[in-house]
Automatic annotation (TrEMBL):
Belongs to the CN hydrolase family. Apolipoprotein N-acyltransferase subfamily. Residues 247-555 form the CN hydrolase domain. The gene is lnt. CDD domains: ALP_N-acyl_transferase. Pathway: Protein modification; lipoprotein biosynthesis (N-acyl transfer). InterPro entries: Apolipo_AcylTrfase, C-N_Hydrolase, C-N_Hydrolase_sf, LNT_N. It comes from the Bacteria. PANTHER family: APOLIPOPROTEIN N-ACYLTRANSFERASE (PTHR38686:SF1). This is Apolipoprotein N-acyltransferase. HAMAP family: Lnt.
């Protein structure tokens, strides 16, 4: 009742308007609309609420939750779809889950308002650095399952995005709030006119204001020049770098089913899927070979090609799955990278008695070389809470769709091999239908005339699903990859903006590493992104359809960028300096 009265009041109207400005302007700036001009005004809602409620801590917390809920409603509305489709919850449970997650996972809004208000009150005058300090603190130290930073939206500007090589998205967030707070402060035309006319006469009664504005304008121009100038330099520097090689890569988007609660026949659907994958690959590669074929996360769900006592005991190994993967790689003489389930038992699983409770399941991706041999695999390390595991055992009963995966322990690059460059030497090519009568070993024997010398020609960095958006995690991989491969399954989110947002959040890894990204999705949007963060030809595969897309991926000469070497050092250094300046200022004026 109290909330209803507040919303119908003048103060409530202004507050909701502020929430809406921040939420809608952020959404307009973000993928897939990509209108970055709006991002400079998105923080205005936060600034106005803080100014109207400065020092009223309880109100600021409530307003922070208001920003969180409306922001979630506008930009992350697909979370509701995921809750009902993936989680299987009815709407009366999905709504409170949505609101609860909006509050718990967007604590950066109330934290930002509280910290900014505290610092602004202590300083007592216009000091835009505290706006940058506050947003950096809020983005660094508040929990987020699906990390989203204002800097990711700033990076829609291709020139400014290049600064991510040094600062990642965090530094761009600080830059945004520094500039935006100036715009907010000068939103009154009278102030601008006063400033313009009072510069020549510093002896007037407005001398102090004029000095502050003059110093402020100079500092603003320096910061703008630094970010735009550095971005322009880096853009042209890396645009002119000559690749040391090119790899032809094919992405296959099979639009595989996720589950069968609608009554479809699972066996029939899986057979149709395998036939579809087989034909899509053959159509693309019959006349035009590639170095690497990439299937997405859950491209073939529920099964593995890893033949072991453990995988056979829990019935996830399927010999026809392995046979088809071998057929594709041998038939076309190409590397094949695909996603699967995997399992083991800690210790010595081959000799120990297999007890189901001891088995660990993995979300895994593996490479099959041009000779049809199963090579290196990568088990997903950074698991998605509520999707791939629950924080407490009793919570698994809430959603039957949630996996019980264990995190992988290795973060190694995946080597790939030289493709077959000669025509096929077999008289009859095999297809999915042949796997009913041929084992994987029989497939390899059939294609023995196509065997070539195994020659490693490079390696790539494997990332599964939303691992690509965690910058601090990705930089932990060692070695110099030729490119990055991100396989993901966004089908749970339906025909929503999530898939575009997911890619945009991960796109900065291309700039931080100065490597191309191959993004392979189950149902859209698959895309190639170059080392400048540009989506090649702006060509995305459509959502909820089958599709293929192929490009030549440039291998950029190996070089450890500043961000790979030092991470968020510059952002932490900035926060430390501003914190020290504030401490000295506060102590001097106490």
């Amino acid at each position: 009742m109290k909330l209803a009265r507040f919303l119908m009041s003048h103060e409530g109207f202004i507050s909701v308007l502020c929430y809406t400005v921040t939420a809608v302007f952020s959404f307009l700036s973000f993928a897939p609309l990509n209108l970055p001009i709006f991002v400079w005004f998105a923080p205005f809602g936060l600034f106005l609420i803080e100014k109207r409620n400065r020092g009223e801590w309880k109100k600021l917390i409530y307003h922070g939750f208001g920003f969180a809920i409306l922001f979630y409603l506008v930009s992350f509305h697909w979370v509701y779809h995921m809750t009902t489709v993936f989680g299987g919850f009815d709407w009366y449970l999905a709504v409170p889950i949505f609101i609860g997650s909006a509050i718990l996972l967007n604590f950066k809004f109330p934290v930002y308002l509280l910290l900014f208000s505290f610092l602004a009150k202590k300083v007592g005058k216009f000091f835009p650095l505290i706006a940058s300090f506050s947003i950096l603190f809020a983005e660094f130290f508040t929990p987020q399952v699906f990390p989203w930073y204002f800097g990711n939206v700033v990076a829609e500007n291709q020139i400014l995005a290049q600064n991510a090589e040094y600062t990642s998205a965090y530094g761009l967030s600080g830059f945004l709030f520094f500039v935006s707070y100036y715009l907010f402060y000068l939103k009154n035309p009278k102030k601008v006119l006063h400033f313009l006319f009072l510069i020549p006469s510093l002896r007037t009664k407005h001398e102090k204001i004029s000095k502050q504005l003059l110093v402020g304008l100079i500092s603003l121009l320096i910061v703008l020049g630094l970010f735009f100038g550095n971005g322009f330099y880096l853009f042209h520097k890396w645009e002119n770098v000559q690749p040391i090689a090119e790899r032809e890569v094919l992405i296959v988007q099979p639009n595989a089913p996720l589950e069968f609660r609608d009554g479809r026949n699972p066996a029939e659907e899986i057979r149709n899927l395998m036939t579809r994958i087989d034909r899509m690959v053959e159509t693309e590669l019959k006349e035009k070979p590639v170095d690497l074929v990439v299937l997405p996360e859950s491209g073939v769900p529920f099964f593995t090609t890893h033949d072991s006592e453990v995988t056979r005991s829990i019935r996830i190994y399927w010999h026809q799955f392995e046979s088809l993967m071998a057929i594709i790689s041998l038939r076309h003489g190409a590397n094949l990278f695909f996603n699967e389930l995997d399992a083991d038992i800690p210790g010595n699983p081959e000799s120990a008695r297999i007890i189901r409770n001891n088995i660990r399941m993995y979300n895994s991706s593996v490479l099959m070389n041009p000779n049809g041999d199963r090579k290196n695999s990568y088990q997903k390390v950074f698991l998605l809470i509520f999707g791939e595991y629950m924080p407490f055992e009793w919570m698994y009963a809430l959603s039957g769709q949630t996996g019980q995966f264990a995190p992988g322990t290795k973060m190694d690059l995946i080597p790939y091999y030289e493709r077959r460059k000669t025509p096929s030497n077999v008289t009859k090519d095999l297809h999915w239908e042949d796997t009913f009568g041929l084992s994987p070993d029989s497939v390899r024997e059939h294609y023995r005339p196509n065997q070539i010398e195994e020659k490693k020609i490079g390696s790539f960095l494997p990332l599964i699903c939303y691992e690509v958006i965690i910058s601090e995690f990705v930089r932990q991989f060692q070695g110099d990859p030729d490119f990055i491969v991100n396989v993901t399954n966004d089908k749970w989110y339906g025909n929503s903006v999530e898939s575009y947002q997911h890619h945009t959040l991960g796109r900065l890894r291309a700039i931080e590493f100065r490597k191309w990204i191959v993004r392979s999705t189950n149902s859209g949007t698959s895309v190639f992104t170059d080392h400048l963060g540009r989506n090649i030809d702006n060509e995305f595969t459509p959502i909820e359809t089958t599709a293929t897309i192929r490009k030549k991926v440039s291998v950029i000469p190996g070089k450890m960028t500043f961000y790979r070497l030092y991470g968020n050092l510059l952002s932490y250094l900035f926060m430390g300096i501003v914190g020290l300046v504030f401490f000295v200022y506060a102590k001097r004026n106490s």
